Amino acid sequence: MEELFEGDPIEKWGDVLLHASQKLVRAELERLLELQALSALLLEEAGLEEKLEGLLKSCKFDPALQARARAKKIDLVMTSMANVLGHE
Question: Domains in the chain: how many in total?
Answer without folding.
Answer: 1
